[in-house]
Fold each of these.
Amino acid sequence: MNQASFEDGLRAELSRLAKAGLLRRLVTTSVGSGDSVVMDGKSVVDLSSNDYLGLSRHPLLKRAAMEAIDKYGVGARASRLMSGNFHLYDQLEEAIASLKGTEASLVFGSGYLCNLSVISGLVGPSHCIVMDKLCHASIVDGALLSRARIIRFPHNDLEYLEGILKRKRQDYKGVLIVAESLYSMDGDFAPVNELVALGRKYNALVMVDEAHALGVFGKRGEGLIAQDSQEKPDLIIGTFGKALGSYGAFCATSKVIKDFLINKARGLIYSTALPPGTLAANIEAVNLVAKLTDARQKVLEIADDFRDFVQGELCLATRGKSQIVPLILKEVSEVVALEAFLKEHHILAKAIRPPTVPKDSPRIRFSFCAHHGRDTLHLIKKVLREFFKKGQNS
Ligand SMILES: Cc1ncc(COP(=O)(O)O)c(C=O)c1O
């Protein structure tokens, strides 16, 4: 096949995606003031970011990053197993293990890389991975890469999960159960304690991704899995790219699993270590997050208020009880039209379409952050009232 005919095939697929309203494109963004960003030359209030505590621009994190750049330079120059393992890693991994109340932790380049590497490093073809149907793409991709048998259970359906464990546990050398403590597109929670109990009962490892809960939940921002909880999952994943404001991720776990992953996790072995500035910002964020009780309360209050509005006044479907509020509609064309209407009115909230979410529940995902004020909430409500009133009249 020559290049021209290969590209013809790519164009045909792109045009199919465009016709179905599923085409993705990159839009250049620059930082605006307050809770806004500038996109396509237009200032919009940003309800699409995961900067839940506003730490991405926090002066203490910026200063820590700049000081580390000054001292070490902008890059790590090598992988962690070569000469990229600056002592900042030890500091960060100790701080995380203490925040999560685990024996150890291991830092990776990003949440995507962490899930990919941890799952594929830990289990193989003689194992079975049993995961919630709504698990993030990075978990699915890690499972595929591992070549283990994959079984997905209906969202949060513990009875179904137990049925699988009862029937299948004996067929495999080991079983890994995977879930997220807070689901990123639905804003709802996993029954973590029950998952851990099932893991113990059927001698299966349990891994829980706290990507969206970290920073926002927990007395000290440790997430939904309490620092002092006796029965924790065997592996807890968290990322620095969301509430902690920067970049990178971790797996909080036992010392033995950490040592094993250092030997088997390909995303750690074969990838350049994180830049020193990023590590320093992450250390600052982990230390700071414990103190941000007011910000945690504020973000959850504003999200609660909005969720009540969606259900009560708009009579539309939503889910969960977190800072992530999905507004669920029936048709992809409706969510695409609503995203455009919001943007026209200076609000950035993204349409989430299949395959990221099921075909019958495309949605607009509103993610609230501590820097969003009541004025922002009033604006969103006003614009949504207008959109749905217009729909009724047309
Ligand atoms: C549950 C979950 N895990 C992992 C990731 C990936 O994290 P990162 O953005 O740090 O790659 C995401 C990102 O959206 C996520 O939602």
Note: The radius of gyration is 22 Å.
Amino acid sequence: MQVNHAIPLFEYLQAWPGIQYVHQSNPQPYRKAELEAIIGPLCDGVDDELGFAPGAGLVSESISGLYADVMPGQVGVFAGAQEATFCVMQAVLNKGDKVVVITPVYSPLVFTAEQIGCDVVAVALERAECWTLNLEALRLAMQGCAMLVINFPHNPTGAMIDLSTLESIVSLCDEVGCWLLSDEVFRGLEYDASLRLPGAVEQYDKGLSIGVMSKAFAMPAIRVGWLCSQNQRVLRDAKRVKSHLSINNSLFDEQIVARVLPHANTIWQRNVALVQKNLTVLERYLSAEKARFHFIPPQAGCCCFPILKCRDAAEYSVLLAEQKQLGVRRQLG
Ligand SMILES: Cc1ncc(COP(=O)(O)O)c(C=O)c1O
């Protein structure tokens, strides 16, 4: 098959009539009516004036309620997880610092550290029955590091670690004295709720837990994320960085968040049910395509990472598009 590599794959697929290219690493976003069935009319309790949120306080209590052992004063509120990650990395990292990440990795977790001038070192998850973190490899990589970045439930594999592995990670961080940045944006989407981990912030005085409304809560339209830390200086410095970005959050968004988060369990259950339903369809497909894929089923979150054995994702994507839209490709010339 001829693949026109001159056209980036994204544009190529966009050009097919009838194909809506949607890339989202979140469950199907909530519809307004669906959410209203849980919290009541969306605008109830929303200020008439659509202003900025006050600098502190409005949602920190409901965010702290997502954890067993986090105080409202340990919560910083940001315009998304992306902003929280950027701000906290800017606040605690310096040029030349060593940062360890676990790969494959959601790339902004690497780029921000690289832009600061950090030396980013990767430790790969190992492929076995399930994705596995090699703690000895991690220990070796972490010598002299300033920050370890973890992300469980993991994007893109859907891997989880258990509590004893998290405790071992915390011990490794403690030995080195490094920050533990824990991207917990999919926390709540464990297929077996007993796998849910405490926040890194609850386990370690240098633990930094990041969460957001867009992922486990499936509400990307509500642009609120958070950073939880036991360290007041870090929270203050991260907020200072935010003052160069979004400055204040949206009052409207935060007022909705304060009403949504007390229903976290209901919302997570809806999302897990959707993800599992879709996963059944995907697994049926992948088991028929065993020759093409190596697949380790996810344990949590809404991402998984089938590995294409032929290693040419562009060609395979075009093949799929052609199977669905035979004849249309010719229009691309
Ligand atoms: C692992 C992970 N962390 C953080 C984010 C950022 O979330 P947001 O864009 O809602 O801030 C994403 C978004 O895809 C993600 O997948």
Note: The longest strand covers residues 98-103.
Amino acid sequence: MISHVEPSSVPLIRAVGISRVFGKGSAAVHALNGADLHIPAKRLIALRGRSGSGKTTLINILGTLDRPTDGQVYFDGIDLGLLSERRRNELRRTRMGLIFQSFGLVSLMTAYENVEFGLRIAGVKPELHKPYAERALDLVGLKGRMKHRPFEMSGGEQQRVAIARAIAHKPSLILADEPTAELDSKMGLQVMRAFQVLVKEEGITVILTTHDPAIMSIADHVYTLEDGRIVEET
Ligand SMILES: Nc1ncnc2c1ncn2[C@@H]1O[C@H](COP(=O)(O)OP(=O)(O)O)[C@@H](O)[C@H]1O
Ligand SMILES: [Mg+2]
């Protein structure tokens, strides 16, 4: 039978009752407490919540950097809990891109070299490095800055280089933990515009955490975390 389900309506991520406990006994911290999550593909998703509500823990688990104590996470229908560590690392390297608050660029490398470095780590064939890196820098509006090093660029431009590096290998999912926290509001919006282009033109799904209401207003959906649970979706 032909399926009538639209590809975009299949969730890219589904998390069912995930918990994450750090430590043991009376010192145990319940960072996540039975969180459920349903993330459609090709959307810009903001995750908000007070400091300590579990945002970073959730991003790390979705990005296969950490595992839940309890519950299941499905990425594109794959149960992450059933994968070996090697397969999880491969999935992360090939299908995901991670972005952090502090950009994480190599200061001695140009923008182009930083992006190419990411392609090497992702295992992309050398002959594809140039077209992929140039395309990624073009998508974030930095084609004219390829030869600049991080110290020659603004914070917003540096974060966009980090985004180019995270998307150059054509992942399906970008996870960004407070990517605009160190930027002023104008640069934060530049970075958000770059994310919007990726969702619209490349069909990438972006999940980011933020405290900033202006950033949330740009997202397609906002999920609110409270005490390790998703309490609201809009
Ligand atoms: N490695 C860890 N060891 C112990 N506690 C942790 C660890 N990571 C996070 N926590 C705790 O889990 C809770 C959620 O943290 P986190 O996910 O970083 O929240 P957020 O990113 O929303 O600020 C906090 O109480 C934090 O102190
Ligand atoms: Mg955090």
Note: The chain has one domain: 41-59+82-233.
